[in-house]
Design brief:
heterodimer, A: alpha/beta, 7-stranded mixed sheet, 12 strands, elongated, B: mainly beta, 6-stranded antiparallel sheet, 11% helix
């Protein structure tokens, strides 16, 4: 059977290309799985009149001579020189009716490739609303390709585009408008001439000008930016928590149900504590991922994201990063997983990688229960100068230490591993517009599905491995042993305890005994596991609150050790989910491995320093 | 007389007369329409060393000057 025809969707940034791709392919999307590709292009299927065609959404680019690594993918695929992605059969070129100049420059280069093309002009509603228009018939005669005007966000003209995509003869090889060796000046001269002849722009976009006067203002703009970021942070931190609690409760109920129906056997323990707990720890991230993706997509589509990056560029520049890095880092204070996923908004590969490597240092919400437990158990509840709570000061210091270290790591990486010339900040501000709700829903749905499929699998596998380590070999527990003591006996006899005791000498300089070592080790699956693991190790009931454990730990852990554990938790990358998503977003296990090693060395050193000083 | 773009006054038409620096930086500026001979305006200067706002034809840009690129302009007439 002949392979399906593939049509590449190509355009400059800010043309509404993603919205059009979403509206054309809907839920028939998947991430292209090509080896050695850092930005994986989306693939989608269009079905119309009983015929099918595959679309590949290539990253936006301004020209075919682009030097940036991210745009090179598009250039290589279109030129047919990409090692793994085959060249497309045709091009669907997307251009923006309200600002055609840069699109026409790219068009002049694409026309010389000799690939059949369809030309789709988006945002015609914006031009018409301003009293403008363009002569698509004259363009058709000059360019020799079919012109398809659409309003992607409202679905207007989409049927015509689909019909043209599936009909093989509709895409035609365009007339070569400029010689391939033309300079960029010559291309702009041509583009401006075409714009002058075929376009009639109406009144200027007064709404965008008025909004920018406020939103980019040094004072008002900054205040609004802070407010938007507070709302963003609140939404992933607080709005998600009732949903996450609900998922937790539902999972606990299912686990209890399994134990009740299957009895207290090894199999029921595997199903409830291994499998279901693993699936639960994947689903529990969904509320945050959904909320974050909705927020980011709205910010991006309405045009605010470029302005936010502009406002914060100076500050992020101090750490070698760009304005867009701010959002993934802020998001990581709630959870590194949505944070790392949102790093997709950073177009530069180097900046994106440096940002991703810095995200695990931001104090995520999973560290909070660990901090709360250790601070209340080890730090005296006294006041500094009669006002400041010492416990509060320690907590603040932990947050600051994490954030500052992460930014410094990013700076270090930008100076070494991801070294590149100081990039001139140059960013186009798209006009403000209402996001397309349909496209928003499709994006959020596809990203969530992608998370569940790729990161989810790894998380479940790790959960099962952790179960094997803690639940086996089965300890000989005398009948009538109270559940708390039974759990303690099981933990003490497990493989995990053997591992903990074996490697304890390595952690002895940090002041960790084998019990603490075991607690720290078990939280390598997820930090919050520390509380339940310590509960098992010290036979304290933590099902309702961690107060009984605080009392036990208060007498068991001296201040220096407590501070040392806290320092360890500031740096250590103890979360398999973060590692899984890091692999997903960087395309290789190399980066999570480097992050793991780097954070471990930092955690060990910080802990050693703190313990030595505090002892 | 040509001056550096960042020294040009706000809301004054400036014609780009020279682009100097790294080839990739020059290309990026040109791709966004800032080719030689094009007129641009500074909408607002950067604050605290941050980027400035520019318009070039119908394109609205954020731009921060850096060592690897120098844009020289000629003022077309005083504001």
């Amino acid at each position: 059977m002949r392979p399906e025809r593939t049509i590449a969707v190509v355009g400059t940034p800010n043309t509404g290309k993603s919205t059009l791709f979403n509206v054309l392919t809907g839920l028939q999307q998947r991430v292209g799985n090509y080896p050695g590709v850092t930005v994986e292009p989306l693939l989608g299927t269009v079905t119309q009149d009983g015929k099918r065609v595959q679309l590949i959404d290539l990253p936006g680019t301004y020209s075919l001579t682009s030097a940036s690594e991210d745009e090179r993918l598009t250039v290589d695929v279109l030129r047919g020189v990409h090692p793994t992605i085959p060249p497309p059969d045709a091009i669907l070129f997307v251009m923006n009716a309200s600002n055609p100049e840069k699109c026409l420059v790219l068009y002049s280069q694409l026309a010389a490739l000799g690939l059949p093309m369809l030309l789709c002009i988006t945002m015609i509603d914006t031009v018409k609303a301003a009293g403008g228009g363009f002569d698509d018939i004259a363009m058709y005669h000059e360019f020799g390709v079919r012109i398809l005007p659409v309003v992607g966000s409202k679905g207007l003209g989409i049927g015509d585009v689909k019909s043209a995509l599936v009909a093989e003869g509709d895409a035609r090889i365009p007339t070569v408008v400029l010689a391939p060796e033309s300079t960029i000046e010559e291309r702009f001269t041509w583009a401006r001439d075409v714009e002058r002849r075929f376009w009639h722009h109406g009144s200027i976009d007064a709404r965008t000008v008025r909004l920018d006067r406020v939103l980019l203002h040094p004072i008002f703009g900054t205040v609004i930016f802070v407010a938007v970021m507070v709302l963003f942070f609140q939404s992933i931190f607080w709005w998600a928590s009732p949903l996450m609690d609900g998922i937790d409760a539902a999972m606990s109920a299912i686990r209890a149900g399994v134990v009740q129906s299957m009895g207290d056997t090894l199999l029921s323990s595997f199903v409830s504590n291994g499998l279901i707990a693993g699936v639960g720890s994947v689903i529990v991230f969904l509320p945050q991922i959904l909320i974050l993706n909705v927020f980011i997509t709205i910010l991006e589509e309405c045009g605010y994201l470029a302005r936010a990056a502009f406002l914060v560029d100076r500050f992020m520049g101090l750490f070698g990063l760009q304005g867009r890095s701010f959002i993934p880092l802020l998001g990581s204070f709630a959870c590194a997983i949505p944070g790392i996923m949102s790093a997709r908004i950073i177009p530069s590969y180097r900046d994106r990688m440096a940002t991703i490597m810095a995200t695990p240092f931001m104090t995520c919400s999973a560290r909070l229960p660990v901090y709360a437990l250790l601070i209340s158990a080890c730090i005296p509840a006294t006041r500094l100068w009669g006002v400041l709570s010492v416990q509060g000061v320690v907590l603040t210091a932990l947050y600051i230490a994490g954030a500052l270290s992460g930014l410094l790591i990013a700076l270090l990486l930008k100076r070494t591993m991801f070294k590149g010339g100081v990039v001139t900040f140059l960013m186009e501000f798209p006009p403000y517009r209402m996001p397309s709700w349909k496209s928003l829903w499709i994006t959020v749905y596809n990203r969530s599905k992608d998370f569940l499929q790729t990161a989810g699998t790894v998380i479940v596998v790790f959960s099962v491995i952790l179960w094997v380590l803690t639940a086996l070999p089965r300890a000989d527990i005398p009948a009538n042993t109270p559940p708390l003591q039974a759990a303690q006996l099981q933990m003490e006899g497990s493989y995990a305890a053997t591992v903990g005791k074996t490697i304890q000498p390595m952690f002895a300089p940090l002041g960790f005994d084998w019990k603490i070592t075991l607690g720290v080790l078990s939280s390598y699956a997820a930090r919050e596991t520390f509380v339940s693991a310590m509960g098992q190790i010290y036979a304290a009931d933590v099902s309702e609150s961690d107060v009984p454990l605080r009392t036990v730990l208060h007498s068991a852990i001296p201040l220096a050790t407590g501070l040392s554990i806290l320092a360890f938790y500031v740096y250590a990358l103890q979360c398999v989910s973060t590692m899984a998503i890091m692999k997903r977003e960087t395309g290789s296990w190399k980066w999570p491995a480097i992050a793991f090693a780097m954070t471990f060395v930092l955690a060990y050193t910080a802990s050693l320093l703190v313990f030595t000083i505090a002892r | 007389m040509s001056i550096r773009l960042e020294d040009a006054p706000v809301n004054t038409p400036c014609r780009i007369v020279s682009l100097e620096g790294e080839a990739s930086a020059i290309l990026r500026v040109q791709e966004l329409g800032m080719t030689l001979g094009t007129t641009c305006y500074i909408v607002r200067k950067g604050f605290w060393g941050g980027p400035m706002e520019l318009t070039v034809n119908r394109t609205h840009l954020g731009f921060r000057a850096s060592d690897n690129l120098q844009i020289l302009v000629e003022l077309l007439h005083a504001a």
